[in-house]
Amino acid sequence: MNASRQVIILDEISKLATKQEQWEPFSWYKDMRENTPVYYDAEQDVWNVFSYDHVKRVLFDHELFSNKKERSLIPVPRQMDSRSNVNLVDPPEHRKRRALLAQAFTPRSLKDWEPRIQEIVDELITDMERAPVVDIVQKLAIPLPVTVIADLLGVPSRDRDRIKAWSDILFLPYNLEAYDDIEEQKGLAMKEFAEYLYPIVLEKRKHPADDIISDLTKAELEGEQLTDEEVVMSAIGLLGAGNETTTTLISNMFYCMLFDQPGVYQELRADLTLVPKLVEEVLRFRFGATIDRKVARDTDVFGPEMKAGQVVVAWIGAANRDESHFARADAFDIHRPGNQQHLTFGAGPHFCLGAPLARLEANMALASFVKRFADIRKVDGLNLNDHLTASATGQSLKSLPVGLSL
Most CB atoms closer than 10 Å: which of 181, 272, 329, 365? Predict the structure, then answer.
């Protein structure tokens, strides 16, 4: 493969070829942490780090590991520049860009959002009561986040299927065999998404409402505002990131309750204060997340000499299983002290802006679900390789049917 190609393909680094390997990469993580904690992939000219301390350093140290990059795991759309994508700049410019986006969230606190989110949760769970078997991905994990973020941004909820489809394509991982086809799909999705949002932005600039897009049109910092195009691109970023991660989180919560720690559902039924602990442990235990940075200057901070301009991939999923930081890291334990120290939402100046909302949705959804249903069980004969793979490890979420007991 040409190392100058814009997109970094993770499967070409890990060599995890099957769905099962991609869903359960943890033995590979362990092998890399113990034997090759700093690994150079010559084919793509990419450094890789796997330990908790190394990953955290990459995320925090923006002077050494920069977000101003030309190559990435997810390619930078041509329509986006540093003004419309806060993830393409470093401090101090990053603080200004992020502050403009953050202003869209400050007029309403999470408490203000709770009643509407609870209403959406209740509607979805009520629909589940009518069926003895429910596809938890299709009936809860997918519709909840995309409905919530569309509602908060001020986009018609009736368009959520279109929004979800565009977002899925934009987050679609690359592979060598279908590279050109995926590139074409992403370009078309970005064009259609932008054309859909542009008139909505124009309308909200003229007639602001109580939503995030309206706030983005009004946000101002040091006399500077976002242009219509920048609001469109910012909204695309929020709509995409606002549902992809939370969909994976909710799906993983049910997988962990069914397969990683059977019986934990009844613990939650007996003590709802355990719900946030389960959410944090799922974020630590079963997220194959990765983040990339550009090496800003020559450094041997991790031992080998890294050259300025090279890319370093921080394997967050491996860091979250690091035994030096989490005792019995390969065990799923909702009672684990300090499990919220996971790095799934990043760390440092680029910590995920939507993390509080993702946590709120997951906690509200699980608490409400547990109150309504006495138990869950997997469908007899369920083959997880056919039904569920993790988007974070390079595949698309499909479905996880479960049986419900009222």
Answer: 365
Long-range contacts of 379-388 (CB under 8 A, 24+ apart): 379/133, 379/403, 384/23, 384/255, 384/259, 385/19, 385/20, 385/23, 388/23, 388/137, 388/251, 388/255
Query: Residue 123, Cβ neighbours under 10 Å: how many?
Result: 12
What would you measure as the largest C-alpha separation in the chain, in angstroms? 61
Helix (H) or strand (E) holding 98: helix 93-102
Amino acid at 269: R
User: pLDDT at position 17, please?
Assistant: 81
The whole-model pTM stands at 0.87
**Residue 21 — φ and ψ, nearest 5°?**
-65, -40
Give the SS3 label for residue 331. coil
* Cα gap 324→30, rounded to integer Å: 12
Which of 344, 345, 349, 302 shows the shortest CA–CA distance to 321?
344
Neighbour order of strands in the sheet with 46-49: 38-41, 46-49, 311-315, 290-295, 65-66
Report H helices in 171-319.
179-206, 212-218, 228-255, 264-270, 275-285, 316-319
- Token representation of residue 84: 């419309």
